[in-house]
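Lecture 7 notes: from sequence to structure.
We start with the chain below.
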Amino acid sequence: MLYSQLELAAYDPTKAKFLRGLRTSDVRAVMVDVAVCLAQQVDRASDLQLDLQEATVPIEPSHLGKIVEELLNNAFRYSSPGSPVRVRCATEDERVLVLSAMDRGRGMTRAQIAQVGAYMQFDREQYEQQGQGLGLTIAKRLAELHGGELTIESVPRLTTAVQVMLPL
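Predicted structure tokens for the same chain:
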């Protein structure tokens, strides 16, 4: 449902402008709440490493929380218990907020990264995967609707880092 709403908003300049007018004044608190709750749900609280800077960003708290949730869902899902999942939040040049989630999991190839999109899941025949394959697409669309972007860097069977940049 959220995916459909975001797709519609992407083509409605009035809705996009409205979304960009909303703010989160305590980015750190939103990220801590989402990250700790999710880590506890998947019994990975000891794997979670947070490095979060205070900031205010033009995105509503629920959308920021959804981005963090989707990035961490993937990081926990595709890495083994006992391996670290790092979440970082910092400002760059007082113009951009950079959120990142890094794990030491199964990783992705360049071809897989290029194919990330709605309902896309990789190696499903090899790995049990829950969900619909919308997580990264939702996070990416939320970032774009707020004037930002999502990037992925990965080394198969070693590490993945997903970064979201949002203008301040």
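Points to note: Residues 118-122 have pLDDT under 50 and may be disordered. Residues 2-167 form a domain with the Heat Shock Protein 90 fold (CATH 3.30.565.10).
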